[in-house]
Amino acid sequence: PVEAEGDAAVRWRAVAEGLKKEAELLLGLLGREAKELEDLALHRAVVDTDGRSLRLHDLLGDRYVVLSFIFTRCSDVNGCPLATYVLKELQERLESDPLLNGRVRLLSLSFDPGHDTPAVLKRYAARVQTPDFDWRFLTTRTQVELEPILRAYDQTVMRGYDAEGRELGTLSHLLRVYLDRCLATGDWTDSRQADP
Known about the structure:
Order of helices and strands: HHEEEHEHEHEEEE
Number of strands: 9
Strand content: 15-25%
C-alpha cells in the first residue's frame, strides 16, 4: 500500500522528536575532554541487583575487570544474548582455572535503565551467574545518569520510536566488551583495540 504523504511526515516528525530527546540528554556533555568524561563516568553511581548504589570506580582496582553493555529485552541472538553467553562461558573457564579464579570480575551494565531495574537484572542474572563468581549486573537509576558512562566508553545507543514519538523498547548498538588492563589506574581496552 502507498503511504499518504502526510503519514510519512508524521512519522519523520516522531523520529525527529525522539532524536531531539536524546540530543538534550547529551547537551550537558558536549565540549568535555575524553579524560574528563572517563573520570566522570568512573565516579558515576551504578545500582546492583540488590538496589545498592555504588560507583563504577569502586568495582575496579582489586581485580581484572571485563565490562560489557547489555539490555535484557535484546532480541538479536547475535547481540546481548550472545555477549551474555560468552561471558557465562568465560565465567566457567575462570572458575576452573586456579591461577585466575578470584582474580577477575565481570560487569554487565544495562543501557536500558527504564526497563532493566535491579529486580529485572536479578532475574536475568540468575540464569547465567554462578553463586561464588564475581559477576555483577548493573544499571543506573535514570538514562541521564547513564549517558556519561556510555559516552566515556564510546557506546552509542539508538532508541526506536513509533509514529507518535513513543519509545518502542528497541535499541540498536554495537556489541563491545572492555577489559580493564591496569588494576591501578582503571585504563580500559575495548574489544576493537585488544590484541588477538
